[in-house]
Amino acid sequence: MAIFSGRTARSLLGLNNFMILSSSAILTGILSYFLHRGLRLTHLIYNEVIAVITLFFYLFAVVLPVLKAYRGYMLPLNLILTYLWLTSLIFSSQDYSGGRCRWNALFSRCGLKHAVQAFFIIGFCFLLFNTILEALMWANHWRSREGGAGDPEKDRPLATTTGANTAGETGGTSGAGGA
């Protein structure tokens, strides 16, 4: 389990964080273009908000795996964002898939609408993998912490004995003086 706490895990996290940042930046641009063109549907606004929130947090998260003391502390945020990105992916699929692309009154830009779906899929996959990797790092950190320095409550002996056998030896004679 040492792979989940070392250089390899932090490298994978850095790559994942960069891909999530890239996906959210591209989505922010495309969705902002749609909003700028005048149509303000609730799914579109929700998707934009999720992309912008992710962009904000992952501007900082890209740098975190470089720190040696980083042990997967963004796990709660990753869990939340994974769920939100899945919801955004579902909303964009409802709006733009199955022949509804041209019916949706958003300028009939099907290529951009499908790009939104594709980048939500890419971002969601990297967020899901990132969540799993962070969970493994977090678990490895706590597992090594518990077995590391030693807890005085856990390391103390259960009972102390002073010379006499406390288990109570029965039977058998010891020594040379039998009766």
Explain what you see.
The chain has 179 residues and is mainly α. It has one domain. The chain contains five helices and no strands. Helix 1 packs antiparallel against helix 2. The longest helix has 38 residues. The radius of gyration is 29 Å and the shape is elongated.
Major beta-sheet overview? none
The helix/strand series, from N terminus to C terminus, equals: HHHHH
Helix/sheet category: mainly alpha
Rg for CA atoms: 29 Å
Spatial separation of the terminal alpha carbons: 61 Å
Q: What is the helix fraction of residues, given as a range?
A: 55-70%
Principal-axis shape equals: elongated
Number of domains: 1
E-strand count? 0
Number of helices: 5
Q: Which consecutive residue ranges, at least 5 long each, have pLDDT under 50?
A: none
Strand percentage = under 5%
Mean pLDDT across every amino acid position: 79
